[in-house]
Write a structure and sequence with these properties.
This protein is an alpha/beta fold and 177 residues long. It has a single domain, classed as 3-Layer(aba) Sandwich (Glutaredoxin). The chain is 40% helix and 18% strand. The chain contains five helices and seven strands; from the N terminus they run αβββαβαβαββα. The protein has helices at residues 3-29, 75-91, 106-114, 128-135, 165-173; strands at residues 46-48, 54-56, 65-70, 97-102, 122-124, 145-149, 155-160. β3 (65-70), α2 and β4 (97-102) form a beta-alpha-beta unit. The radius of gyration is 16 Å and the shape is globular.
Length: 177
């Protein structure tokens, strides 16, 4: 293995270890009911991005955040993603953050994104995403699953199943402040 490749493998390993440790810490302190504010450890989670780099939840803290859990093998997930993407772009100037967390592996997500016009930041959470979604109130573990966190980190809205632009707009209008 070349020196450059060893450094890259080491960096990826350190990132995976940090993400795993952060997830384990958050999982132990997250509200099982999916209500109330998410614990501070939630904001320390990091996810690999299919295009490279990391999706860092701390960058979205202290503002409303829409999180969509999805997978490439889930037809309703794929159907709703363009609506979520459009909604996120339309509401970004109002301070809304939005991300997609793929409960999938890198290759199918990267291939899917190559053929789509999505601008929504996507993180790869693999099977850990099911547990994260459950900690955010998804008691069935199904997909798609969408939540809205308030700027205070409190779980404001959640939806198991396909959502719509109109539904997300109602959620955002009901946010305080």
């Amino acid at each position: 293995m070349t020196g450059r490749r060893q450094i890259l493998v080491g960096a990826l390993g350190a990132t995976a270890l940090t993400a795993g440790a952060g997830f384990a810490w958050w999982r132990g302190s997250a509200p099982a009911s999916g209500s109330g504010a998410v614990p501070a450890a939630f904001w320390q989670l990091r996810f690999e991005r299919p295009q490279g780099g990391e999706l860092v939840l701390a960058e979205f803290r202290s503002r409303p955040l829409l999180i969509n859990f999805w997978a490439t093998w889930c037809p309703p997930c794929v159907r709703e993603l363009p609506e979520i993407d459009r909604f996120a772009r339309d509401h970004a100037r109002r301070g809304l953050g939005a991300i997609g967390l793929a409960i999938d592996s890198k290759a199918p997500v990267a291939n899917f994104l190559k053929d789509s016009a999505l601008q929504l930041p996507i993180g790869l959470c693999g099977t850990d995403g099911v547990e994260i979604a459950m900690q955010l109130g998804n008691d069935r573990g199904g997909l798609p699953y969408t939540v809205l966190l308030g700027a205070d980190g409190a779980l404001r809205e959640r939806r198991l199943g396909e959502t719509s632009y109109a539904e997300m707009a109602r959620w955002v209008q009901a946010l305080p402040g």
